[in-house]
Automatic annotation (TrEMBL):
Domain of life of the source: Bacteria
Main location, first listed in the record: cytoplasm
EC number annotated for this UniProt entry: 2.6.1.52
Occurrences of domain Aminotransferase class V (ranges): 6-343
Originating organism: Paenibacillus thermoaerophilus
Name of the protein in question: Phosphoserine aminotransferase
Cofactor(s) this protein cannot do without: pyridoxal 5'-phosphate
Molecular function terms from GO: O-phospho-L-serine:2-oxoglutarate aminotransferase activity
HAMAP family assigned: SerC_aminotrans_5 (MF_00160)
Pathway terms, separated by semicolons: Amino-acid biosynthesis; L-serine biosynthesis; L-serine from 3-phospho-D-glycerate: step 2/3
PANTHER family per the UniProt record, alphabetical: PHOSPHOSERINE AMINOTRANSFERASE
Recorded catalytic activity of this chain's protein: 4-(phosphooxy)-L-threonine + 2-oxoglutarate = (R)-3-hydroxy-2-oxo-4-phosphooxybutanoate + L-glutamate; O-phospho-L-serine + 2-oxoglutarate = 3-phosphooxypyruvate + L-glutamate
Positions bearing N6-(pyridoxal phosphate)lysine: 197
Length: 362
């Protein structure tokens, strides 16, 4: 058996072992064609099948109603920060953004380069320790859209109740929590996610949107940055990141085999409960960095008050085989990313390590 690390990396992140093994088995000779996916045309029937099937699987797993289209794009979620306003924030209009931390703020920064931005709600005054309640989010009926960040990967806060925006299209950056739990897709007009946290490897970004939003981009938007270019070409306008899409395909099949998104949520809650309990039962030795009702089931942020002890924790954790526990430089402290593919055993081992470290140092 391959030696697998306790991988808590924030992104790129752990992939299911079963998926890696299947990719390995098909690496050199994909289904008897004598070539790998990376060596064939994106216009071949083999790749077209992967392209179509992956879109269908995503729709099936998310329970997407009729009238939505999936795109596989490049440039990461970061490029969507620009593409969304370029395509949807037309001159004279305003878009609302909810400021909940690092990623939301990056999206806001890009949108401001392109058009009028209004801050619909901000938790900056609370140090981004919580998500705003739907009632705190002011939505103007004339806005082009409202943009939220479903899960703040760096801060460790996650929306557990989405705002109701009425006729105003709701757009969500779900890069770090897509498919971690069931959602009502009909509430959203556009959902996007870089694949490298919860969907597969880096290189592809998924955009799922109402067809009418993708149908016609403003005239002056460059070809590659237009949603209508990619929608009309079924994500085959230019050479797609074929291997990444193939990997997403395998990850989606893995989720399906696990029982779908509801089963995955149950699994994620069991996993994260283990770690949150280690924090909550530590009598204050470990401190969560966010409010309980905004806690993320994908990125768990925590601290040890004594700085020297925190350093010691990270050092010993690394020696014990735990990878990626150092918090993002903007927040510091610790972060355990517990995406769908992170096995329960990794979380149980971390909880045990935390309790043991506390026994020895508390
Ligand atoms: C990682 C991340 C991004 C950036 O993704 P890239 O694919 O690296 O551009 C954007 N938003 C969120 C919420 C993320 O977690």
């Amino acid at each position: 058996m391959a030696k697998r690390a306790y991988n808590f990396n924030a992104g790129p992140a752990a992939l299911p072992l079963e998926v890696l093994e299947q990719a390995q088995a098909e690496f050199v000779d994909y289904k008897g064609i004598g070539m790998s996916i990376m060596e064939i045309s994106h216009r071949s029937k083999e790749y077209e099948q992967i392209n179509d099937e992956t879109q269908e699987l995503l729709k099936e797993l998310l329970g997407v109603p009729a009238g939505y289209k999936t795109l596989f794009l490049q440039g990461g979620a970061s490029t969507q920060f620009s593409m969304i306003p370029l395509n949807l924030l037309t001159p004279g209009r305003t878009a609302g953004y909810v400021a909940t931390g690092s990623w939301a703020n990056k999206a806001i920064k890009e949108a401001k380069l392109i058009g009028e931005v209004a801050i619909a709600a901000s938790t900056e005054a609370d140090g981004y320790r919580r998500m705003p309640k739907p009632s705190e989010i002011h939505v103007d009926d004339n806005w082009a859209y409202l943009h939220i960040t479903s899960n703040e990967t760096i801060g460790g806060v996650q929306f557990h109740e989405y705002p109701d925006t009425g006729k105003v299209p709701l757009i969500a950056d779900m890069s770090s929590d897509i498919l971690c739990r069931p959602i009502d897709v009909s509430k959203f007009s556009l959902i996007y996610a870089g694949a490298q946290k919860n969907l597969g490897p880096s290189g592809v970004t998924v955009v799922l949107a109402r067809e009418e939003l993708l149908a016609e981009s403003p005239k002056n938007v460059p070809t590659m940055l237009r949603y209508d270019t990619h929608a009309k070409a079924n994500s085959l306008y230019n050479t797609p990141p074929a291997y990444s899409v193939y990997m997403v395909n395998l990850v989606l099949k893995w989720i399906k085999a696990k029982g779908g998104v509801a089963a995955i949520e149950q699994y994620n809650r069991e996993k994260t409960d283990l770690i949150y309990q280690a924090i909550d039962n530590s009598g204050g030795f470990y401190k969560g960095l966010v409010d309980r009702d905004s806690r993320s089931i994908m990125n768990i942020t925590f601290a040890i008050e004594d700085e020297a002890l925190e350093k010691q924790f990270l050092k010993e954790a690394q020696e014990a085989g735990f990878i990626g526990l150092k918090g993002h430089r903007e927040v510091g402290h610790m972060r355990a990313s517990t995406y769908n593919a992170v096995p329960r055993e990794s979380c149980a081992a971390l909880a045990e390590f935390m309790a043991d470290f506390q026994r020895r140092n508390g």
